[in-house]
Recover the amino acids of this structure.
């Protein structure tokens, strides 16, 4: 059974792999043998994650790029290809949030969040998936969505809309890339105290979340590793594409 989840010889490109959730996921992929290219705007944070992976016997390298810039992503794809020869797994885990009330929302802020959370995923898939197809590499694309993508949450209007769009992108590209042997899926995390939501976790909001989460707790970043490793493995999830996998403590199953 261990062979089902063996990622040895595979290279994973992790866009946003220097974030709290992204870094936890790539550590799980690395523990199963994948070589990791960690891509982030903050190179220092990416290097910290790479050093931790290498300290545990894995192979990783940090790269810097702006997910909202095609030129930047094209350049980093070239750098990664020089380092690894190509890639088999693409993890899209960038994320940006805001608590600005709807009537106070300026389009500059809307564009900024959409550029990272939605446009950035479209750009990475155009660049990285195209190269996978050119190299005739089968593989897996894993997008990180949110519980707010299916049930919009209060106080995070733009974030919720961007993640709903990401779900649609996931399912569209699953159909688009299936003939090339590339699977596209999304993980829908529940509430994990990551950077983009800590500032809105008031005592009242935490109580509301717990009342809507059957498991009555927050998730830990490491609890995303199992779903990611499963989706990354060609052996374990070879017939899985276009799916939205919930890792949310039951949040999505609640109504009243």
């Amino acid at each position: 059974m261990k062979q089902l989840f063996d990622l040895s010889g595979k290279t994973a490109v992790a866009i946003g792999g220097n974030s709290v959730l992204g870094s936890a996921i790539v550590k799980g992929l690395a523990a199963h043998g994948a070589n990791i290219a960690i891509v982030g705007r903050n190179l220092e944070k990416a290097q910290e994650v790479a050093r931790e992976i290498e300290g545990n016997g894995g192979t990783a390298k940090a790269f810097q790029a702006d997910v909202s810039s095609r030129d930047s992503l094209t350049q980093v794809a070239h750098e990664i290809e020089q380092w690894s020869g190509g890639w088999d797994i693409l993890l899209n885990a960038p994320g940006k949030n805001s608590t600005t009330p709807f009537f106070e929302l300026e389009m500059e802020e809307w564009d900024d969040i959409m550029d990272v959370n939605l446009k950035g995923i479209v750009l990475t898939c155009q660049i990285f998936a195209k190269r996978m197809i050119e190299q005739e590499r089968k593989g897996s694309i894993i997008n990180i969505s949110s519980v707010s993508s299916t049930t919009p949450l209060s106080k995070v209007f733009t974030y919720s809309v961007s993640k709903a769009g990401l779900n649609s992108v996931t399912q569209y590209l699953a159909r688009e890339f299936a003939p090339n042997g590339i699977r596209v899926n999304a993980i829908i995390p529940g509430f994990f105290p990551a950077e983009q939501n800590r500032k809105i976790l008031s005592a009242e909001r935490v109580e509301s979340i717990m009342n809507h989460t059957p498991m009555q707790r927050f998730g830990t970043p490491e609890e995303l590793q199992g779903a990611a490793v499963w989706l990354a493995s060609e052996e374990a999830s070879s017939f899985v594409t276009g799916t939205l996998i919930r890792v949310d403590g039951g949040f999505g199953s609640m109504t009243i």
In short: The first helix runs from residue 20 to 31. The CA atoms of residues 18 and 46 lie 5 Å apart. The chain has a mean pLDDT of 93.
